[in-house]
Amino acid sequence: MQASYRNAAGTRVRASREALLAVLEALGAPLSGPSPHEGSSDGSVSEALRLRRRQLWERPIEPAVVAWDGQLRAIEVRLPCTASGALSCRLELEGGEAETFTVPLECATLRRAEAVDGVDHAALDLPLRRQVPLGYHRLTVEGDGRRAEGLVISAPRRAYRGEPGGPSRLWGVFAPLYALHSATSLDIGDLRDLQGLREWVTGLGGHTVATLPLLATFLEEPFFEPSPYSPVSRRFWNESYVDLAAVPEVAASPEAREALAAVTAEQHAAADGGRASLVDYPRLAAARRRVLEAAAGALFAGGSARRDELERYAAAHPDLDDYAGFRAACETLHAPWQEWPAGARAGCLDDRQAPESVRNYHRYVQWILAGQLEASRAAGGAGLLLDLPLGVHPAGYDVWRHREAFLPRATTGAPPDLFNPKGQDWGTPPLHPEGIRTSGYAYQIACIRHLMTHSLVLRIDHVMGMHRIFVLPPGRDARDGVYVRYRGEENYAILCLESVRARALALGEDLGTVPGYVRRAMAAHGVHCSYVAMFEVTPKGLTPPPPDAFASINTHDMAPYASFWRGLDIEERRGFGRLTEEQARHEAAEREELRRRLVAALVAEGLLRSEQASEEEILDAWLAFLACSDARAVIVSLEDLWLETASQNIPGTVTEHPNWRRRTAVSLEDMRSRPEVVGRLRTLGALRARAGREAACP
Prior knowledge:
single chain; 24 strands; 37% helix; 698 residues; five-stranded mixed beta sheet; 18% strand; eight-stranded parallel beta sheet; Immunoglobulin-like; alpha/beta
């Protein structure tokens, strides 16, 4: 935990005593007194520190250690200074093989010593000198009447970087899947639409399709939360994206076919009056559920080869039944798990709370969606750029089942800055820095592996969270936040190992105020960085993206290009009350200066003929600047290509703006025939290909 931090202006900000105590209590410190909000005595804090120090010194080895490139040279052990003889070690490899050996304490090197409750303890570097295969292994150490077990993460030092001889200059497009629609879509873009987009982009020479998280969300009351960054779980999929027409049980079941026909007729009737601009999640969830429930019922009504396949899938994913039970209980008890009866709250569900038929539905839809994703991957097309959110919904499955991994009473956020003077509260519980370690990082590994299995690129939302997270104590806002630290080396080891195993690139979202050590760690471990062109217009011109960057003009949390260029986003935020009149005038003046700098820079680069250029010519020139750069990848938002002005998300708004619900104004079919879309993508592809050839010929 950090007692202070430097803000966006570079000023040192010190956390208040009350905030530090509240976060300490959230971390599990046994502070006495009525509550940290009312004040804890210095004695209680001293006692908590004494207990923590004793706990650490009495822990013979750390819960996790890293063996970079398989080299397990030494580990730190902590023992009373009176300990002698040798330590017995057992190294059990991930594959089941095991080795037992002893290491004499006389071979260890003293690192430091400290008296704990009157007993002198020593921290020693114990030489192991083992070369172990890549993977997750268990190390047990025994001696002096103590026994401890830890996770050994044997990982490559760098993440996967692509196949030798593969394309060095990638490009792709971005669109939220919920926003896409086609002639075959039912209420929402689905995996058929996504596959169609992937194949189209491949045909244009592209390499990737980026989208927002496809993870399970609460789409019905009383939990309704459509944000893809507040999922029910980071380990299970959102069944709204199932391609209903491709489900075998839908074709085989009369009831499912009838339900699908009704949904299709309803969709066509709505389309006659013009497709709604916003996704109606509760309605679509109910309509799709009728189809999938009938399909699931048909499967579970009797034995079949397909049912055997589902059971094999469930056996390979042992948490599936548990997740299905949780979702069933949510629907039966109609309350967040924090308000459930004691047994259910503790994680034990009975058949009344989680009926078998509802469990089976949730088992079924997860199996179907995973199968469709796998089939899409096998069919080829541009690879997916998937997103791992920083957090999860506090009433979701992950917090219920993995309580040791979270600080459930606190929330994550960001400190105050020029754009958000009050800071930000994202409403998601932060990970417990010690809880995730003592549980062997099982939750973290499962989350990353779940997404990397289907990714060409995995984007780590708020990559700074691998090092530290801004934690808001219970009942306090972001002005009272405290940074809590995590073990960066261990997090990078997991990411690098999973990346190499899945042959997926790793991308970190490192925007905003990010300490230098974060970007140095990313570079050292082969994690690509983010470059957003709107932030890179300086008085000296355009800062080019570095070679490790995934470059784009904007992000899903920013205004589209046309809105940015016209200043519509400033007026929008002023209308929402997010800016005062004075602030809006000031920002408009700054935007005018930024536009002037951008145009001058593009002219200087030889990408614009004149400073009297249209907004479309400026967009083309800006894209060309990115395309010709050394960036590893360029990602263009499809909506920018037809000068969309409406945002998909405006951070800090709740009811003022329809975040995460707006459909694209152009269908997938129309995109393929629009000259401004196809022409810009073809130009982007040609420029990227030329940049790659030039890079290959020094």
